[in-house]
Amino acid sequence: MTADVKIYTRQWCGYCFAAERLLKSKGVVFENIDCTGDQEKRDWLVEATGRTTVPQVFIDGRPVGGYDDLRALDRTGELDRLLAGTAPPR
Questions:
Q1: Domain 10-84 is in which class?
Q2: What is the dihedral of CA 12, 16, 21, 27, to 10 degrees?
Q3: What is the percent of the chain with per-residue pLDDT over 70, rounded to a whole number?
Q4: Residues 48-90: tens digit of each pLDDT
Q5: What is the pTM of this model?
Q6: Where in the chain are the domains?
């Protein structure tokens, strides 16, 4: 099973590019949702994640955070389990 990955980004965002690069380096196919100038999407993200920043990454519908969070998950091996769909629910 492969996880469903969505990443909410804005144009010209260095952390967004870094998160995309990390996911691509793992061969992950993901949906990029550009929030540039879309206040409705940004408001929804704040409601869904409690955060006002991008990127925001969702794996199998669960928010996992931004680039720093993704890197931390990668360092512990948890990101690979989440992407494979084998991590236990939190």
A1: alpha beta
A2: -130
A3: 94
A4: 999 999 999 999 999 999 999 999 999 999 999 999 987 665 5
A5: 0.91
A6: 10-84
**Amino acid at position 71, single letter:** R
8 Å CB contact between 42 and 31: no
Do the beta carbons of residue 35 and residue 41 sit within 8 Å?
Answer: yes
Question: 15-23 long-range CB contacts below 8 Å, 24 or more apart?
Answer: 15/53, 15/54, 15/55, 15/66, 15/67, 15/68, 16/54, 16/55, 16/67, 18/67, 19/55, 19/57, 19/66, 19/67, 19/70, 20/55, 22/67, 22/70, 22/71, 22/74, 23/57, 23/70
How much of the chain exceeds pLDDT 90, in percent?
91
